[in-house]
Design brief:
This protein is an alpha/beta fold. It is built from 16 helices and 22 strands. Helix 14 links the parallel strand 15 and strand 16. It is globular. The N and C termini lie far apart (52 Å). The structure holds 1,4-dihydronicotinamide adenine dinucleotide and magnesium ion. Magnesium ion (MG) binds next to strand 4.
């Protein structure tokens, strides 16, 4: 392998042309042990405790990760507070330059990030390479651009940063969620204490190395690892001004309770159970691809996954037949293989949760269909699964499964499908497939969902705001809207 010395390219495709085989992980240097990133350096945890992170596709341990306790969180918050005094005062265009530098370094190291993301979390390398890592870099590019334009974004409103942001992220899009959180916080002049999820800390720690190398002033970004109690220490810290959380609705509710009565600002991006709606006049083959992408992308570990399929009666038979045929072609297996469509379930716990729901679905009387693919003998894997004849009251229809499991219902009229789509505690996203623009406009105004995709699904872009209604949370991330939760006017 030759080491590349050229400037990072702005075009991922060309950058990848020189990539070593992605299955080859020899060029990836993982440390045996990872420490906390506080005030610009890696430091040992106060408790001296470490926990293991695993490769869910092989069940092998990858590394030990430091567990931060209250003392470590205190250190991280005071580093962030000290850094805020300077960071919020340097010129906005300087701030922008630092963020651009992070984006460019991320592109330069994209291969390493992609492979580590796939090793630690189980997602197919094709997705890490083509979606997660490029999008993460794009978030930094996008928000770098806003840094010196806040006066234009909010004319006559004198936007000011809040202070120290505590950010807690989940395991389904580890680096991308770190980017969603860190980039707007920095662009608006805040400093950060971020905690990745315990099963997928490695790319956030690689990001910490990148941030150190970028020359960002010490303490502007601090990354502390650990599980729920570390997260709670951040949430309850009195010197934090804002909490941004993405994860389960249960933990989101806990956080909301703990900060009630404080002056902390809060955004919550929680679970979902999106309706993906196929009308008689939809382009059927495209819709089938959209259904597949909607539920099987990232093993279905997607808060906005199209996990409830609604098919209009006239096309139900043909859609289901084509869907089953397409499912048979999906390759489930080694996430490092470029041909793999569905990788490993993120953890043993998540696999048992999915299996529990599959049993519930069968007991509730829905008709299960699974593709006949072989599964690897080691690691946590799940066959792509459909439940036909599901009904609105079934738990598999009402609750978030967060795996490759799709429920299928049919409908006759537009009124009926709107009522069913909305009759759910969540309201994060939805999909609509039809030939008629008027139907799309009618539906998008009536569906209680933060994002509605029309004739496509799971499309993400830094310019576009994302967030939910009801139990899916509140506040928006991405786009101009994503700046607001980090500002006071
Ligand atoms: P979780 O909500 O427990 O974890 C998300 C993050 O919150 C992690 O960083 C975790 O360490 C942290 N956390 C846990 N307890 C905390 C507390 N008391 N205070 C502060 N931070 C805390 O999610 P988990 O247990 O990993 O997954 C359970 C289910 O949640 C999944 O099966 C899925 O249904 C849902 N989920 C939804 C996500 C989404 O993006 N909407 C992401 C992750 C999970
Ligand atoms: Mg892991």
């Amino acid at each position: 392998m030759t080491k590349k010395t050229k400037q990072p390219s702005l075009d991922f495709k060309t950058d990848w042309a020189y990539a070593p085989a992605l299955e080859d992980t020899k060029h990836i240097s993982l440390k045996k042990q990872y420490d906390l990133f506080i005030d610009g350096e890696f430091v040992k945890p106060h408790s001296k405790k470490y926990f293991a992170t695993y490769n869910p596709a092989t069940e092998q341990k990858l590394a030990d990760i430091a567990e931060a306790d209250q003392t470590d969180v205190n250190k991280a918050v005071s580093a962030a507070r000290k850094a805020f005094e300077k960071w919020s005062k340097i010129s906005a265009s300087e701030r922008g330059k630092y963020i651009y530098r992070i984006a460019r370094l991320m592109q330069e190291r994209a291969r390493e990030f992609s492979v580590i993301e796939t090793l630690d979390g189980g997602k197919p390398i094709r997705e890490s390479r083509d979606i997660d890592i490029p999008l993460a870099a794009n978030h930094f590019f996008y928000y770098a651009g806003w840094a010196d334009k806040l006066e234009y974004a909010f004319p006559n409103r004198n936007p000011k940063p809040l202070g120290v942001a505590g950010q807690i992220i989940p395991w389904n899009f580890p680096l991308l969620m770190a980017a969603w959180k860190i980039a707007p916080a920095l662009a608006t002049g805040n400093t950060v204490v971020l905690k990745p999820a315990e099963s997928t800390s490695l790319t956030a720690l690689k990001l910490a190395e990148l941030i150190r190398d970028s020359g960002l002033p010490n303490g502007v970004v601090n990354i502390v690892t650990g599980a729920g109690s570390t997260g709670a220490a951040i949430v309850n810290h009195p010197d934090i001004n804002k909490i941004a959380f993405t994860g389960s609705t249960d933990v989101g509710k806990l956080i909301q309770k703990s900060i009630a009565g404080t002056s902390k600002k809060l955004t919550l991006e929680l679970g979902g159970k999106a309706a993906n709606i196929i009308f008689d006049d939809a382009p059927i083959d495209q819709a089938v691809e959209g259904i597949i992408n909607g539920i099987f992308f990232n093993q279905g570990h997607v808060c906005c996954a199209g996990s409830r399929l609604f098919i209009q009666e006239g096309v139900a038979d043909v859609v289901i037949r084509k869907l089953k045929d397409r499912m048979e072609t999906l390759i489930v297996g080694d996430p490092l293989d470029k041909n793999t469509d569905i990788g490993a379930i993120n953890s043993k716990e998540q696999l048992s949760k999915i299996n529990k729901y599959i049993t519930i679905g069968k007991n509730e009387g829905a008709e299960m269909y699974q593709s006949s693919c072989a599964l690897p003998t080691k690691g946590y894997f799940c066959r792509p699964t459909l439940f036909l004849n599901a009904s609105q009251s079934h738990r598999i229809v009402q609750e978030e499964i967060f795996g490759p499991v799709l429920t299928i219902q049919t409908f006759r009229t537009i009124e009926e499908v709107i009522e069913k789509a909305n009759n759910i505690p969540y309201g994060l996203s939805a999909g609509v497939w039809t030939d008629k623009g008027s139907k799309i406009f009618n539906l998008t105004s009536k569906l209680r969902a933060g994002v509605v995709w029309a004739n496509t699904y799971n499309k993400f872009d830094p310019t576009s705001p994302f967030g939910g209604y009801k139990e899916s949370g509140f506040g928006r991330e991405g786009g101009l809207h994503g700046l607001m939760p980090y500002l006071t006017f």
